[in-house]
Amino acid sequence: MFKKILIANRGEIAMRIIRTAREMGIKTVVVYSTADKESLPVRFADEAVCIGPPNSKESYLNIPGIIAAAELTNADAIHPGYGFLSENAHFSRTCQKHNLKFIGALPEHIEKMGDKSTAKATMIEAGVPVVPGSAGILASYQDAEELADEMGYPVMIKATAGGGGKGMRAVYKKENLKDAFESAVIEAEAAFGNGGMYMEKLIEEPRHIEIQIAGDKFGTACHMSERDCSIQRRHQKLMEETPSPFMTDELREEMGAAAIKAAEYIGYEGVGTVEFLVDKNRNFYFMEMNTRIQVEHPITEQVIDYDLIREQIKLAAGDKLSGKNYYPKLHSIECRINAEDPFNNFRPSPGIIKNLNIPGGHGIRVDTHIYAGYQIPPNYDSMVAKLIVTAQSREEAINKMRRALDEFYVEGVKTTVSFHRQMMDEPAFLEGNYTTKFMESFKMNEKYNIEF
Ligand code: MV4
Known about the structure:
Elements: E1 4-7, H1 11-23, E2 27-33, H2 40-44, E3 47-52, H3 63-72, E4 77-79, H4 89-97, E5 101-102, H5 107-114, H6 116-126, H7 141-151, E6 155-159, E7 169-171, H8 177-192, E8 197-201, E9 207-215, E10 221-228, E11 232-233, E12 236-237, E13 239-242, H9 249-266, E14 270-278, E15 284-290, H10 297-304, H11 308-316, E16 331-338, E17 340-341, E18 347-348, E19 351-352, E20 355-357, E21 364-368, E22 375-376, E23 383-391, H12 394-407, E24 409-411, H13 417-423, H14 427-430
Parallel strand pairs: 1-2, 1-4, 2-3, 4-5
Antiparallel strand pairs: 6-7, 6-8, 9-10, 9-14, 11-12, 13-16, 14-15, 16-23, 17-18, 19-22, 20-24, 21-23
Helix pairs in contact: 4-5, 12-13
Bound molecules: ligand MV4.
């Protein structure tokens, strides 16, 4: 087992990794930017190394600085968390070269899944269902037009380097195809330096349901059931739950088997997530594979009663999986608490937390790095806490979430607590009848605008 892990991350996920490492008897080192000098991970890790200024490029993305910090402190592994360098193939490879175990995916797997068209082609080879569409990259606009005529509208154009919805266009009519194609190429060129496009049939009103998987170095993979992440705004997840209210035992078996097939086909090692689009008839299609631990992993931990960070560290150290799958015994919901104003278009609201009350009690888990007096820096992601509620049924979990949100006080900055409180009263959410389109028509109600 590792003796010392360097954590190349900040915030709640840095705290999350420190906690499991401490339980496993593994020492921790965090790297931090000057903006995070007063942060909890810096106080709670065994060691902390300042690696640069607030700007992520010069700190949390500074590969030479992070490797130097690992060598200086004699770390034997690096945990990248999520975001930042977690899906950077060059970083994974650089760690390998410096004899530091990267507690994340192998560079080949990051590369294969990072290019969406290659990922899709690989899944076709593996026998995993994908959305009908082009065989690889479209060579020209002419190709796009011919294929769309052949498949029929509506279609979706997607950038192969895509992420966060960039370079993606839904096209309902032939007359809009040219503008959509050309603007998507320009957008993808600017964002990724890669204008490669592929095409699919548009899945209307899909659900985003993902399967948590784990793979060992002996070629065995297992699944840990699903998370429904359909409540998103501009490709940012706001809330997740497991089991999905749309799931059936039969669909879980099929999607779980497809996710294992995907992981075993590429020989995936470590924890990962296979994302699917699910249509109204419960047809499911591979969308992407995330080669990292995800923000929403705690809801899975809660319903299968397993520590996924511990599992991830053990797999990186060479542990073997039994091959059995894991099924939800409970219902769990996560609300992402962001320092954003839901009454003002979710505008970021950094600043000092003047006062704070964190909810507690049976079935409540709060993963956070904030405290009263903490200054939320404007440089990073606005997520400041994850409120995770677990109960015997969905109804009980929702009821408990209402109670927990009513106890959650964050004074000094605006947060999404009020948004989630309203969600717990939304008829479509209560019925479990929601798709990725839900937030497009969502409006905040002033009655949830309570000032502290
Ligand atoms: C789609 C789709 C409909 N049809 N593909 C969004 C992120 C990108 N990785 C894939 N995405 C989508 N692909 C086809 N063929 C709809 C989306 C989509 C979406 C998917 C999951 C969660 C939220 C979403 C919001 C808008 C669009």
